[in-house]
């Protein structure tokens, strides 16, 4: 202690009221200096000083011992500064301090207790009989218990890192309880007549069974009794055959023994009771008999036990009494414990029990409950126990009692992520140490963080954590831990795989090759042998990935079987998993996500297009965790992303590939969103169209830069514009759609010929860079709708378009311009082009000749363009009542009435139907028939590509006849692949109704 004023010196040591402490010492600070220095390391120096003053007054010998022995001084000061209750014990028994410098060694075999109780030499530990009077034995038992408990507390409180040593403390207390129970049973046998005829085992449950006891805990036990065999216990002769007891009488004796044990540790006596001995976890609880035979226990668990009782049995172990009977009990109940998760609704029942526990917490304590409340110990324990019970039925490494052991096993087995397990372990140790510190203050059973400033400060200092020095620090740390535990609890405890895994049959979960083949065939796999090869490849080895696959696959196999192509689902899951290798987040996501695994299984077994696309963009699996990532991005966001990608490319090809890469991401995102029902058909079409726009935009930039560089031009001789037509212009593209375009330029110099040459080169290069390159999906550009069709120049100036439309415009070209819009290039030029074509496309009503032209052109398309060998009624685009019928009907009305009715001026087919209805050109019924057929056909086109994986050819526009393909499409449309026959029937019904409207509205009498 520094030689400054007494008050300053005491304040520096951590005394909250140094003035009062100085007065209490009454000038003896120098004499007490070593003790005061040690108290400064304690939780509450003020409390410690008061206790030690009382101790030294009660025992002058104590003062000398404290001054002479550094180890004793450290231990006594730590106890005195933390616990008023344990301090009072030292004052009552000052001789106990002499033990506190010794090494603490608590033995669960009860040797210390049995020797003190004068147990007869040669007796077996399971049936020993004390040789002392009851009252003396009870006092000895309790005194020895408290004396050893103080030794445990001394080591705990003097530890430099009590959080790290938490486990030693709990296990030592548990061992102390075990020894005490053995002593209590020996003492009880000395006073219960006929006890030699009875075998009794005390089964530890709960924290006692897991060796996780607190300083103050209820000790949960279950009693099992049996009639001893003919030789009696420990070879002692039983009474004669005539006087031998019956099983019923044996249970009565065993019950008296159990009651006596409870009285020994919990009843009135000269020394205060130790702890409540709680037997309410026994069958039937308080209403059931205190002691049952092993057979009676087994019968109860077979017929009447509830789910929570099996969870309670998870920690059962023999603590005292007949060891053979105790082992038999544990072996017998293990069968029930490790099959409990197969009970109907087991996981859901466990979760409901956790919710009930929380709801029963007193409202005033809820926010500060470190055991039962949100983010408390029970969150960790329930999480660990549920995972043990679900997965422990096949993984014996999980069959452990202690929470930290179980957490380590779950981590090593891949059931919990390493980081999550490590965090939970740290938080659990913190919470248990905090619980110990709360209880140590007054040796009272409490799990509520106090609000009193002095108590919070005392606990904070006793935690010995660098960042926790004050009560405020402790509050902050507790809130942080509470939030983190709650978050992990929700993520793991409510993991969606758990109920599914719990419901699996043993054949499902074993993955045994022979047993699996029949099971796989039975649930729909066409090639079970090949499927088993995939399973073996995924699960072989001891890697963490293989371990997690062994958890996932039994569930995933069932989910794949819910789709129309389970074999394909498993194959593509293997491909994806091998692509991902040991990527840390992939397996963790599938194991822990709320929906990702289920969604992935549905997608892989339903959509070949997506199954083949996901491994090429594996980060897309992350998108399945929620809905937000599956919604289409805005055009602004996509163009910003394109700009960012292009900024990192320094070649023309790289710029073009950036656009096509982004398009591939968009196509995949769109397909996932559509298959999972996050977006609808129109949103999917708009998103696919936006992907084409992005690709064309990048291709235009790349082509322009490449051509200009080839001509050594620093500036372009024109401004350039790409105009979308057809489904591209209408925002109605599908996966197999071509991009119809016009290429427009506006010369910036007088050399119009050179400008035209460069514009054609750029247009030609643009088409090429979108078509070439195997790394990204190609985008076919169709420029045949340009003036003069294939015979016309690929690019024209704005003035040339104006001249052409003024002199040679045909009706079909006017119709094509109805769905024209700028998609890439110069915005001002785009506005000029729209100003040019608006008077053309929305001009005067159709003349009689133009009416005939439109109808004849439509009839010629129907007869000439439909693919050969395809049943016309099943062709989605060109068949009767198909997409083309509806498109042409809307465009026909737009051509005839768009000039006088601005609401018809839209590139969207469905918006055009709405506008025509509001304008009185269509009845609501007719509009609905057209819209229903058009939407269903468009959805079918998307589903055919997604289901079959084909992106080109006539079959992508035809309703399939193949049963498997129909099942796949049905699953994509309705999630029910059994509805395969309804697909074609529904389309034919809708298209017939639409065709009747088309024939009446479009093919009516010529005007």
UniProtKB/TrEMBL annotation:
NCBIfam families noted in UniProt: PRK14109.1 (NF010707)
Class in the EC hierarchy, top level: transferase
Domain (PII-uridylyltransferase/Glutamine-synthetase adenylyltransferase): residue spans on this chain: 352-491, 855-997
InterPro entries: GlnE, GlnE_rpt_dom, NT_sf, PII_UdlTrfase/GS_AdlTrfase
Species this protein is from: Flaviflexus ciconiae
SUPFAM superfamilies, per the entry: Nucleotidyltransferase, Nucleotidyltransferase substrate binding subunit/domain
Matching Pfam families: GlnD_UR_UTase (PF08335), GlnE (PF03710)
One of the record's GO molecular function terms: ATP binding
GO biological process, one term: regulation of glutamine family amino acid metabolic process
Domain Glutamate-ammonia ligase adenylyltransferase repeated per the UniProt entry, residue ranges: 76-327, 599-833
Name of the protein in its database record: Bifunctional [glutamine synthetase] adenylyltransferase/[glutamine synthetase]-adenylyl-L-tyrosine phosphorylase
EC number: 2.7.7.42, 2.7.7.89
One GO cellular component term: cytosol
Record keywords, A-Z: ATP-binding, Magnesium, Multifunctional enzyme, Nucleotide-binding, Nucleotidyltransferase, Transferase
